[in-house]
Design goal:
By secondary structure, the chain is an alpha/beta fold. It contains seven helices and ten strands. It has helices spanning 30-38, 51-70, 91-97, 112-122, 169-176, 195-208, 225-233, and strands at 11-12, 18-19, 80-85, 102-108, 134-137, 154-160, 180-191, 244-252, 256-259, 268-274. The strands form two sheets. It has an eight-stranded mixed sheet, sandwiched between helices. It has a two-stranded antiparallel ribbon with strand order 1-2. Strand 1 and strand 2 (18-19) form a beta hairpin. Helix 2 packs across helix 3. It starts with 10 loop residues before the first strand and ends in a 6-residue tail after the last strand.
């Protein structure tokens, strides 16, 4: 897969900057669903195909804490509501549901086999089994009713390793935005579309050493951090002062994932955008 082919997935300006493509369609890609269905049985094996996700999970919480530490979401009693979109086998959803400050985690995924793995694993934890703190739904974001009030919205909407698997990311993000309450954050992790990421994620990780299952990623669908910034700056009521955050992360063999400032321009990174609070 050649890097120059990103023109297939992005409209390119004369200066070479890609634009996130808009299209009115479901975010569910049958090819992606089929791929992750095959990985369902090994989702909770810390040494299996999802090993890098297990290792990355603590950094997800660190990044959320960084976002929340600079602002207040305005949640009653300090308890947070999470919406985990594309939750997979529930690695983040379970860990978030166990946090003392969590009110509820709603976790959705369109792949029934993967969601069944998440539900069965949660049943092994007596604190989560039949708990109202963790709700799994076999749905896409388009299947959820749009919240009618702030009480139905979420403090944190998470898209971990999701957006690079979406064919039309702008339309997908537009479907996610209404679920964030004023003062809340949309957080995600993804991969920059660069020569470096093509070599490390496709050639090395998938083809040479196999730490990521082959076919997991399509380099053409990677999104650069400046494209996400541009998208959110154009949204009314988003990305006010201090309302955009990003942090690069690098996988170091033998050490795991490490936050590396500046690496968001080249490979894996976290990104957060805040919906501006309502001022009375």
């Amino acid at each position: 897969m050649r890097p120059s082919a990103f023109r297939v997935a992005f409209r390119v300006l004369p200066n070479g900057h890609g634009l996130i493509r808009l299209h009115s369609t479901s975010s569910v890609n049958p090819t992606e669903v089929s791929h992750f269905r095959k990985l369902a049985s090994s989702w909770w094996d810390p040494h299996g195909s999802s090993r890098l996700l297990h290792l990355m999970n603590p950094l997800r919480h660190d990044f959320i804490n960084t976002c929340l530490s600079t602002t207040s979401t305005g949640s009653t009693g300090g308890k947070l509501k999470y919406l985990d979109i594309g939750c997979g086998g529930g690695i983040f959803a379970e860990s978030a549901a166990r946090l003392e400050h969590t009110k509820v985690v709603t976790a959705i995924d369109p792949t029934p086999e993967v969601l069944k793995v998440a539900q069965e694993h949660a049943r092994q934890d007596p604190t989560l089994h039949n708990s109202e703190r963790l709700l799994y739904l076999n749905k896409s974001i388009e299947d959820l009713p749009v919240p009618a009030s702030a009480d139905e919205q979420y403090d944190v909407v998470a898209l971990w390793e999701v957006i690079e698997h979406i064919k039309y990311p702008s339309s997908f993000l537009n479907s996610c935005l209404p679920f964030v309450k004023p003062g809340g954050w949309l957080v995600l992790s993804t991969i920059a579309r660069t020569w470096t990421s093509w070599f490390t994620t496709k050639v090395v990780a998938e083809d040479l050493i196999g730490i990521v299952p082959r076919g997991t990623h399509d380099w053409h669908q990677y999104i650069n951090e400046h494209e996400l910034q541009s998208f959110f700056r154009k949204q009314d009521g988003w990305a006010g002062p201090g309302g955009l955050k990003s942090m690069g992360c690098v996988y170091m063999p033998g050490l795991g994932w490490r936050m590396v400032n500046g690496s968001e321009k080249y490979g894996n990174y976290f990104f957060g955008a805040r919906k501006e609070p309502v001022i009375d």
